[in-house]
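For reproducibility, we list the full input for the zinc ion complex.
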Amino acid sequence: MREPLESLVRTINLSGTLLFRLKGNLRKFSNSVKENKMRNQLLNVQCGLCSDKGKWIKLFDYPSADVPQAEIFQCGTCGVIRNASATEIETSNEIIQSQWVTDGFYKLPAQEKDFEEEASHAAGIFPWLENQLGLSLKNLTMLEIGAGSGLRSAGATKFFREVYSSDSSLDLLNNLKEYQLGKKVTVLGENDLWNHKIDWIIGWHVFEHLKVPSEYFKNGHEVLSSSGGFFFQVPLLSPKNVFPGHHYFFTQTSLDQFFASLGNYETQYFFDTNVEALTCIAVKLS
Ligand SMILES: [Zn+2]
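The corresponding predicted structure, in tokenized form, follows.
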């Protein structure tokens, strides 16, 4: 009686193992089909920075804030990093921005004192820029894109002669108060965004949200005065920073290559691993 029972147990175990292996193989097969599908979709996607097509190299799957594993690719031509889950889960800037307004992520402080304090804090990047450039910004103009609540633009009026500000959602910007000197921020809509000569274009955590960030740089390049430039900060690739709203992660190589394609730029990069961000100053030399 023992032998048949043992043989039955062995058979069950064997079947279990086989089933387990089969399941594993099926999972691998379905993952590879999914990966190939993603890769094939990406083959037709132009790089948002260098515009090259079909040069995507799969780097790895990465933990993401919104999906279990985000597929991370790199452009084989310029090296910019693309979060494929941002393409898979379609999120337009307008939707995200309006959500952030509704959720209160973007808000203007009701109290005058808080407004002054927060605007001043957000504009703390400008004395730092003056220091890096070794010059004063006070006779210059600036345009902030993706300005959100506009606090930084308000604070910037203390440092620049003229401040232009824009965002895909203008509700908050249109209600922006004057800050300290009584100088008003000029709010620009999408249609008149590139109609003014600008010395500095500021983008604080905005270029990673754009599907085609090169468009903004190219348009900006056209309106930038010589010896003006771009001053921006973008998140570095990290688990905290991967979520569908973030399409691109920029590297020094990808940006250097891109600015060289635009014109004669002198670039400086500041990597801060504490806040997981890259700050770039790109000065237009001619
Ligand atoms: Zn590229």
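Residues 93-284 form a domain with the Rossmann fold fold (CATH 3.40.50.150). The chain has two domains: 1-36, 93-284. Both points were considered when choosing residues for closer inspection.
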